[in-house]
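User: Hello! My lab partner asked me to get a predicted holo structure for this protein. The small molecule is S-adenosylmethionine, SMILES included with the sequence. Please write out the structure tokens.
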Amino acid sequence: MTSRIQYNNPQQAEALGLPYHYEMVSDAKRVTPFKKAIQKVCKGKRVLESGAGSGILSILAAKAGAKKVYAVEIDPKVARFAEANIRKSGFQDRIKLIRKDIFKTTLEDLDDEKVDVVIAENLSTWQVTEPQIPILNYINKNLIKQDGARIPALIFNYVELAQSQYQFENAVEIRTHYFGFTGVKKPRILSKRQLFTTIDLRQQNSLRINRSIKIKIAREGTLNSLRLTSPLQVYDGINFESSDSLMPPVIIPLNKDVHVIKGDMIQLDIRYSYHTNWDAIRCRAKLIN
Ligand SMILES: C[S@@+](CC[C@H](N)C(=O)[O-])C[C@H]1O[C@@H](n2cnc3c(N)ncnc32)[C@H](O)[C@@H]1O
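Assistant: Hello! Below are the structure tokens for the protein in complex with S-adenosylmethionine.
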């Protein structure tokens, strides 16, 4: 589907239209945990949303009793869409739409007072393509009270060792990263799921990752790929695993195949920067028995 391909290609973000937002607002697996968190924390609070899109989460915050919601959206076309939805919701007095880049949003835009809650769904698997981390760094430094609530609060980046199929019908070979959308053939998993990084969105986080971990092989196979996932703690006790429109598993190829048996130890070296693209992630797997 075009919107999915574009979703994972931030260079084309401005070209995204309603199909992308339809996919996101209709995905109850994605919206429900955000709605629950919003209902838990927004009542009586001043709320900032980064990347309002259709306006759905800002409208839910107003519905939950937020005192004031500041909905920031960079894309003028999308902002017009949000504006229409906010008007239809009847909450236009409590939601201020700010047509700006979040990085250019100042306290002045927020009526000269830091907010109590930030909602930001600028997420992608392992934060590779979307700007969640730089955005939260900016908001933490400039726009939110120190003890304010972040929705989501924590991101857990996990990795599994995997065997993917890259040969099809003995005729075609495609060795690329791919998204584990519903219906896409699943890789064979060769290890337990292991935590790679935990990101606390209340803190300033470095934009570059360079880390090695060791993982034990649980079953024999050909190690040729890594399966990456990013479950969230949206808020205390409210969790999100993955959905087709938000952080599907991403399977990335290793540059060579390694035959492994149960009990083998693999050292994984991974280097990348947030808010780049999947071709820029560097991964190496080494047998270290
Ligand atoms: C993944 S969508 C989420 C939309 C909506 N919050 C939702 O949950 O349905 C992210 C939105 O953030 C906007 N966005 C991306 N970068 C931004 C920036 N630097 N400042 C403001 N908005 C931004 C995009 O245009 C897009 O509408």
